[in-house]
Design brief:
Shape: globular
Number of domains: 2
Structural class: alpha+beta
Order of helices and strands: HEEEHEEHHHHEEEEHHHH
Strand content: 5-15%
Number of strands: 9
CATH topology of the largest domain: Aminoglycoside 3'-phosphotransferase, Chain: A, domain 2
CATH architecture of the largest domain: Alpha-Beta Complex
Largest sheet: 5 strands, antiparallel
Length: 352
């Protein structure tokens, strides 16, 4: 095993030969530098012929079929090229696993920053800039919700029929599957699980307009411009599908810190003062969307449910020794807080 793990997963000589075959520059690959990302996926910045490239491939032990996920990501990034959705521009994709042992793709680097890591001086010093950052996050969801998925070639990218009705049983089945991890205490350790699930099942919106959705849309999965509050790109498209784009807004609601800046998951920002409230964000979405937002609270509760189940998966793996115990325990507490937030919304129309 190399002291630089990416070297065991990305053979640059083979990548170079593949780039020769598809006509992407000439000469050696220079200055390979691993990049941090929101997931365990390998992100590698390098240069060839003076042009920068970012390579993305799945980790050594991905959840599910990492190659299929990578191919889907590349496909959606390619489809977004003709839209106004801020995203990493796809350069080329290799769907074959024969080159480096996994499917991968190349994209343009993003000149931006992740706000959950740190704020640059401009953003950290100006409350008005931070307020516009919050609205820019919503504007990104609005732009994605306007995409005509049929026109951009994504008509078969997901199954919209019955999408809302199957959400709770699908994610409950995933949660129940965690029983295979020895030491996990079970679903009973999540307060309000059954209550939230029943409320969701009893209040499914009667209809929705299908569209392209990101599936994991929150502050940690966007990059902001360094010279202003606008989005530079939406990243990490692993869960993108055709479904109900209102769920992306629900995801913002579920993960948005409270007025004191305290967050229920992994998405805190410092300093927090100046960012819009949840109510302000919902108003922004309503003003910019033609979708029916009557049931926006339902989408916030569903997002709490889904994200809570996802985070609990790391805790289950940690209980079995397959993940960090410290990380697992932290995410278990975040799961509990998400369900507490969901419960607080069951009887109240006020989102906070």
């Amino acid at each position: 095993m190399s002291d630089e793990p990416w070297k065991d997963l990305v053979d640059l000589n083979k990548v170079c030969a593949w780039m020769d075959r598809v006509g992407l520059g000439s000469g050696a690959i220079e200055d390979p530098t691993p990049l941090a990302g929101g997931t365990q996926n390998v992100l590698l910045l390098f240069y060839r012929d003076g042009r920068p490239f970012v390579l993305r491939r799945s980790p050594r032990h991905p959840r599910g079929d990492g190659n299929a996920t990578n191919r889907r990501e590349a496909r959606v990034l390619g489809a977004l090229a003709s839209t106004d959705v801020p995203h990493p521009r796809l350069i080329a994709a290799c769907s074959s696993e024969q080159v480096i042992g996994a499917a991968f793709y190349l994209m343009e680097p993003i000149d931006g920053f992740n706000a959950t890591v740190m704020l640059p001086p401009l953003h950290a010093s100006d409350r008005s800039v931070r307020r516009e950052m919050g609205f820019a996050l919503v504007d990104g969801a609005l732009a994605l919700g306007r995409v005509d998925h049929v026109a951009v070639g994504l008509c078969d990218f997901g199954k919209s029929d019955g999408f809302l009705e199957r959400q709770v049983p699908r994610w409950r089945a995933l949660l129940d599957g965690y029983r295979d991890y020895e030491g996990w205490p079970g679903a009973g350790s999540i307060p309000g699980l059954d209550q939230v699930a029943k409320w969701l099942a009893d209040h499914v919106p009667p209809s929705f307009t299908p569209g392209l959705m990101h599936g994991d849309y929150h502050l940690a999965n966007v990059m902001f411009r360094k010279n202003g509050p606008e989005l530079a790109a939406i990243v990490d498209w692993e869960l993108a599908t055709i479904g109900d784009p209102l769920l992306d807004m629900g995801w913002i609601i579920a993960t948005w810190p409270g007025v004191d800046g305290h967050t229920i998951a992994e998405f805190g920002i410092k300093p927090w003062g100046g960012f819009p409230s949840i109510g302000d964000l919902v108003d922004r979405y309503r003003e910019g969307s033609q979708r029916d937002t009557t049931h926006i609270r339902w989408y916030g509760v569903l997002a709490c449910y889904k994200l809570g189940v996802i985070l609990e998966g790391t805790y289950a793996r940690a209980c079995a020794g397959a993940a960090s115990k410290i990380t697992g325990q932290r995410l278990h507490q975040s799961c509990i807080k998400l369900f507490e937030r969901a419960q607080s919304w069951l009887e109240s129309d006020r989102l906070q």
